Amino acid sequence: AGDGGGAAERGGPPAPQRVLFPPTFSVSEIKNKQRRHFMFLRWKQQQRKEKLAAKKMRRKEREALGDKAPPKAIPKTIENQRVYDETTVDPTDEEVAFDEATDEFAPYFNRQTVPKILITTSDRPRGRTVRFCEQLATVIPNSHVYYRRGLALKRIIPQCIARDFTDLIVINEDRKIPNGLVLSHLPDGPTAHFRMSSVRLRKEIKRKGKEPTEHVPEVILNNFTTRLGHSVGRMFASLFPHDPQFIGRQVATFHNQRDYIFFRFHRYIFKSEKKVGIQELGPRFTLKLRSLQKGTFDSKFGEYEWIHKRREMDTSRRKFHL
After folding, report:
1. Where are the domains of the chain?
2. What is the mean pLDDT of each run of 10 residues along the chain (322 residues)?
3. Which of 103, 104, 119, 316 is most exposed, with minimal Cβ within 10 Å?
4. CA angle 33-38-4, nearest 5°?
5. Burial of 86 (C-beta count, 10 Å sphere; 0-12/13-18/19+)
6. Does domain 86-314 bear CATH number 3.40.630.30?
């Protein structure tokens, strides 16, 4: 404080003073709302400066030590602190290989069936849901859109089986917004119920590419590690034909992170021989598994393999099921 006063007496600008708070100071104790917000912003700015200064200091120390510098610390995240799940799939496990060879998706992976998808909606859908179904049909090859009016799913499923459809996708909506997806593998199931959120149509995506072509896209399934996640991943894979047409440079990605499944549809852009970029085509959405049911859709007498019970299962933020 003495230096600042001397500088002022000599006519120079006062020296900047560092914001200091008492050890027991709490911003919430300030009664005035504007003053409380101002002091909080100043405190956050000070925290950022200190963090940046410490980061620069560590970098200089590492440069000075050279090869003798200690290894960088791995930051703690929810993903790398995940609680181990006993159902995690081991690709070399014989039991897993036997299950894959005998489950409902085996005919698809053995190339005995060709995917044929029916996309339908809830009763009397609105415009946004209709547009979403139309755009989803351009992503999934050999898919057909049907807008039902009062026809029950139990009557649709036998007709789908008679017409050689391998999967049924139902898009539900609430207040004109798509909020649910039912995926039923035909003819023997299983049926997965998802909560849908963060739906973005093509016109709502910034820097989007041109309309997708009719080429069969590649499929990327990320982070489906448990037995349940393995089953869900095989359901998504069975929607697309086996052999992608790489000339189309299109890729559909199902990325699982903390039990949220993020869907993105991109096109590769080759900028040079060494640089490759991606351009999103849309649509995009996020899924959260609610239940997995044996057999085809049956809301009353269906047998469930797995149901998400929020109060019982979400006891730890580091516990994931997919």
Report:
1. 27-58, 86-314
2. 50 58 72 87 91 90 82 81 81 80 90 94 87 94 88 88 94 91 91 94 88 93 92 94 92 94 94 88 94 84 85 81 86
3. 316
4. 135
5. exposed
6. no
